[in-house]
Design a protein that fits this description.
Strand 2 and strand 3 form a beta hairpin. The radius of gyration is 24 Å and the shape is elongated. It has one domain. It has about 100 residues and is an alpha+beta fold.
């Protein structure tokens, strides 16, 4: 669930020459939108790698080696996506 942090109106009012001027409030998005996009891009990159591997590079390997390359590349992709989410969780868990 996304969270928007809105500061009160008093902190955005500026007094100058007897008139009250209001500056624009600052909206801060604390949600994981970039991480969702990064995860999708990571999965697409993994699928593209597997497709290219199957089409061009797997000729010299047997079936067992092809399966191992697929599993290891899936583990590496999962670890990278997991580390990305864990870093985000660590950074934003203390703010709520």
């Amino acid at each position: 669930m996304s969270s928007y942090k809105f500061q009160p109106l008093q902190s955005h009012c500026i007094m100058g020459s007897g008139r009250l001027r209001q500056s624009q409030p600052s909206w801060k998005y604390g949600g994981p939108f970039a991480l969702v996009v990064g995860s999708i891009l990571g999965i697409v990159a993994w699928a593209l790698f597997i497709l290219l591997f199957a089409l061009f590079w797997s000729n010299d390997f047997n079936l067992f080696q092809d399966v191992i390359v697929t599993i290891v590349s899936l583990i590496i992709t999962g670890l990278l996506i997991g580390l990305m989410w864990m870093f985000w969780l660590h950074m934003y868990s203390g703010q709520r």
